[in-house]
Write a structure and sequence with these properties.
This protein is an alpha/beta fold. The chain has helices at residues 8-25, 38-53, 77-89, 91-96, 112-121, 137-144, 196-200, 208-220, 250-258, 278-286, 303-309, 315-328, 347-360, 387-410, and strands at 29-34, 57-58, 67-72, 101-106, 127-129, 151-153, 178-182, 184-185, 204-205, 225-229, 237-240, 246-249, 265-269, 293-295, 333-340, 364-369, 416-424, 430-434, 439-442, 451-459, 463-468. It has 4 domains: 8-153, 3-Layer(aba) Sandwich (Rossmann fold), CATH 3.40.50; 175-291, Transcription Regulator spoIIAA (2-Layer Sandwich), CATH 3.30.750; 295-411, Transcription Regulator spoIIAA (2-Layer Sandwich); 416-468, OB fold (Dihydrolipoamide Acetyltransferase, E2P).
């Protein structure tokens, strides 16, 4: 067992505490609201699972909730300000129902300056717990119920010791056909702009047999879209066997998951370009269950800025990797992330980014204005790019990417694609996602969680329109 893995005895102890709470919370409702990335979404499902184990009923209505937990994101300032605004708006609800308990979890809760801010300015928040404390929710709830004053359950361990792995904990999945599976946690990269290593701890990988068991159970239960998660999945190093002396790499784990029985699409996020290996690309090309998309964040097209970001690759090596992906996976979509207006970014640096985007021709590009994160090295850098200039560059690059995305989608008109339906919305419009993870509007109401085959009849910048072929949908 890894030193970071919580013992089965401790997990059982928490479950016993949960059982002891059920009589006192019978009929009470809990609300979990999650912000940020897929890893946060996976954590949110585990938080909800622990609360249901304690006896709470889940609700999306804050006016009905006896417990509200905001599962937060700290990657950008905007996300943090949004959470603080929501917390502020909850004060009146708390005044109307003093017995209501408000909690904060996730990456914001792990930041020391936010802990102080919550203690000073938001004393009506009852409890905070860090990213490594989810398995302790039964104990935390027992501690805060019926008591007054703010309690904080935060680890102060250094990066190399911070973070845990938990198995056999309850999960309340938000979908009956899409599932998130964390294969590893934490990050050792310390990109100069990123807060994740400080709030998520060091890299730690689940045992491969545990991941495979979870994926197998999901496939057997009828889940059709399974995503493997990690801050950098390529860093996965799973120990197996009684002595923990057999190491599985991520390409090996991905291959074994894709070889399991069942009709499902297997996805993964996120790959770091410095670690995305030829083996990974070959595994993707050899398994039809793995999605036809490769998400590979490049962040900047300037070698100088990449060095300042501490990304540990060059634009040349990234372009070489992108060409290799296109060679092995000619039908795959390529998506990426980019940060605009990093400190000291000049017009030339920005144009290098524009050139990379035009060279690679991404299907989707997630663009973000640089946001300083307290405690990171980039926060201390001089040469801030004015906000107006950041916005100008953002809009310029958006125009280019929108054109490229529309051209790539238009080229798909007439193709036959496999789609996993998400069902119809309130207006009766049925949508789904292709194996390239592109959104497509369907001309038939196909039940959610059902695969079908569709011919692409039209395309826009970021959506497709399709005609479902007769007798092609199946949910078994």
């Amino acid at each position: 067992m890894s030193a970071a893995e919580i013992s089965r005895e401790e997990i059982l102890r928490q479950h016993e505490i949960a059982l002891s709470l059920r009589a006192s919370v019978a009929g009470a409702k809990a609300m979990v609201r999650t912000f940020g990335c897929q890893q946060n979404e996976a954590d949110g499902e585990r938080i909800a699972g622990e609360l249901t184990d304690c006896g709470y009923l889940l609700t999306d209505d804050i006016t009905q909730a006896d417990v509200v937990i905001l599962n937060t994101c700290a990657v950008r300032e905007h996300a943090e300000n949004r959470v603080l605004g929501i917390i502020g708006s909850m004060k009146k609800e708390k005044e109307k129902r003093p017995g209501m308990k408000i909690g904060m979890s996730g990456c914001m809760a792990q930041e020391p300056h936010r802990q102080e801010q919550l203690k000073k300015n938001y004393p009506f928040v009852d409890f905070l717990f860090g990213t490594d404390q989810v398995h302790r929710i039964p104990e935390i709830m027992r501690d805060v119920l019926g008591k007054r004053g703010q309690r904080q359950y935060i680890s102060e361990l250094p990066h190399a010791e911070f973070g845990v792995i938990t198995e056999e904990t309850p999960v309340a999945r938000t979908s009956s056909y899409r599932a998130l599976v964390s294969v590893m946690y934490g990050c050792n990269n310390f990109c100069s702009y990123c807060i994740v290593p400080y709030v998520r701890g060091h890299e730690r990988s689940r045992r491969p047999e545990n991941v495979l068991d979870e994926v197998r159970e999901l496939a057997d239960a009828g889940y059709r879209d399974i995503m493997l998660l990690g801050q950098n999945v390529n860093s996965y190093r799973g120990e197996t066997g009684e002595n923990g002396n057999v190491i599985k790499t991520f390409p090996e784990l991905l291959s074994e998951c894709a070889s399991l029985d069942g009709d499902f699409v297997l996805r993964f996020m996120t790959s770091h370009p410095k670690d995305a290996s030829d083996d990974l690309i070959r595994v993707m090309a050899s398994h039809p269950k793995i999605e036809d998309r490769f998400h590979l964040p490049f962040q900047s097209g300037s070698n100088r800025i990449l060095k300042e970001m501490r990304r540990r690759y060059t634009r040349e090596s990234y372009l070489e990797k992108a060409e290799k992906i296109k060679s092995y996976l000619p039908g795959a979509a390529l998506t990426s992330d980019v940060i605009i207006g990093f400190p000291t970014e000049t017009e030339k640096d920005f144009l290098d980014t524009v050139d990379l985007v035009e060279s690679v021709r991404f299907d989707m590009l997630y663009m973000f204005l640089y946001s300083p994160r307290r405690g990171t090295d980039a926060e201390k850098m001089d040469g801030r790019v004015p906000h107006d200039e950041q916005v100008r560059r953002f809009e310029y690059l958006s125009g280019i990417q929108n054109r490229i995305a529309e051209e790539k989608n238009k080229a798909m008109v007439g193709r036959t694609v496999r789609v996993l339906s998400d069902g119809a919305d309130d207006k009766g419009v049925c949508t789904g996602r292709t194996t390239q993870n592109k959104i497509i509007t369907l001309d038939k109401n196909i039940p959610a969680g059902t695969f079908c085959t569709s011919v692409v009849t039209d395309a826009g910048q970021y959506t497709l329109t399709g005609r479902v072929e007769e007798n092609t949908w199946t949910n078994h």
